[in-house]
Amino acid sequence: MTDATLPLLERYRDRLARGGEEFPISLGEGGTPLIHARRLGAELGLERLYLKFEGTNPTGSFKDRGMVLAVNRAMARGVQAVMCASTGNTSASAAAYAAAAGLPCWIVLPAGKVARGKLAQTLAAGARLIMIDGNFDAALDAVRELGHDERIAVVNSINPDRLAGQQTAAWEIIDALGMAPAILALPVGNAGNITAYWAGFRRSAELDGTSLPRMFGFQAAGAAPIVGGAPIASPETVATAIRIGNPASWQGAVAARDESGGLIEAVTDDDILAAQRDIVRFEGVFCEPASAASVAGVRRLTAQGSIKREDLIVCVLTGHGLKDPDIVAPEEGSLRPVSAQIAAIRHAMGL
């Protein structure tokens, strides 16, 4: 068991650090809760369902785990700026850690495809945004090319330091449970996270003899290139964080699936939104739509009998619901003011 009071990179220094490497930058990332979802589990017919809620990271998503390592190492190399392509969460994280490092941050974004909450974070941290007429995959292609300039550190998940840092979530799950789960379920967009989790579980198995979970990844039906076996030119889904048509870590995701005896399947937008509502209404945890793909997939497989009631399952919720509030915001329009009189309020309450 590691010391949870230490900064994330210090907590796992023996697995991450190079020699006497220093990690001066930390925003308090990691240490996110692993919640026993009793009510949601009962609804799904599962006894041991847990939610790893990455929305409590400093910028509200799992990206901070890898970004803290990538930016620390970029600063140590003496780069002059950091850069990334993003659908939102990576940009918010890169902007925050670049600000802490005193480095300029350039973000290439697909025009009109980024959730407002994520865009607001990125702008507030002082990042410089470039909107392109194209999707995320086009943005990443451009950033790859610009990254040949040694003055610039690209901090997308094509940067191996990003994936190395994201392994820490797997180690935290093992620390909390005392073992690996039978199934680790998570959304799949650019596929770096499923790749990193699998690497983390394998590292723990090598060092500590822990068991290995089956890796269950879920893509949105309108953005499911791995499921379909071919890139998608114009991916579409309400789950903006996984609206990606040609994942950078495609091969890593397939390896995680195949080596673990797992699967990568698609879930519909309706399934994702239903799961998002149920997660917060049964457990009080508000996650962004993309996060809910993990629960949507587990729900369907449980109904099909592919998951047993007693299986130990961890669903990763990758980001906070306030990152992408537009889906639920229209419900505000159904509210109508009533008189401030107690009788009127009682009537509105149905009392």
Walk me through what this model shows.
By secondary structure, the chain is an alpha/beta fold. The protein has two domains: 222 residues, Rossmann fold; 96 residues, Rossmann fold, CATH 3.40.50. A six-stranded mixed sheet has the order 1-2-10-7-8-9, sandwiched between helices. The protein has a four-stranded parallel sheet with strand order 5-4-3-6, sandwiched between helices. β7, α10 and β8 form a beta-alpha-beta unit. The longest helix has 17 residues. The protein starts with 7 loop residues before the first helix and ends with a helix.
Topology, element by element:
Layout: H1 8-11, H2 13-16, E1 34-36, H3 38-44, E2 48-53, H4 63-77, E3 81-85, H5 89-101, E4 105-110, H6 116-124, E5 128-132, H7 136-146, E6 152-154, H8 160-166, H9 168-177, E7 183-187, H10 192-208, E8 214-220, H11 225-228, H12 250-260, E9 263-267, H13 269-283, H14 293-304, E10 312-317, H15 342-349
Parallel strand pairs: 2-10, 3-4, 3-6, 4-5, 7-8, 7-10, 8-9
Antiparallel strand pairs: 1-2
Helix pairs in contact: 4-5, 4-8, 5-6, 8-10, 9-10, 10-12, 13-14
